[in-house]
# Entry
Amino acid sequence: MTGAGSAEFSAALADLRAAALRPEVKLTEVPAPVRIAPYAVALTADVLPTADSDDALATGRFVLLHDPSEPEPWGGAWRAVTYARAELEPEMATDPVLGEVGWSWLMDALEQHHVAYAAEAGTVTRVVSESYAGLADRPPSVEMEIRASWTPLDPIRIGVHLQAWCDVLCAIGGLPPLPEGVVALPGRRR
# Structure
């Protein structure tokens, strides 16, 4: 975490830390970027099939930046910068709507959490790996990456942005969404 002095940023951090996430999501605070904004926090997340598993279904990073000078491209004083990655079934490599589906998961998650945001941007990438020669016995693999950023417009409710992003991470990891009105029981995640 950089620049821990802002009262507004401290309140946002408290809201992030209080966010109720699915028990499959394990968060870890990591060093934040230091040159992008005066205030920043970075979290990595792994979606684990069970509490004692080390094999992540999906992994990613959530960075919250705060710059009171409101950089013009941001359209506000806050910026969420995210990355999510998961391995998919090999037949997904040729799905022509994979990118659209990945992006819609993010937009739907933000909408379902009723967050106010602006200036969204991002990419959805599929990576196909085929092995040859001494590695020819490895099966082809397909990974999906969603890189996205947006400007949270309500800094008092920053935790819901993290919840929405974790929903996307769970979706690309293959977990079914929680039914409407069902809240995941808290688990150990930090």
Q: What stands out?
A: The chain has one domain: 7-172. Residues 7-172 form one domain.
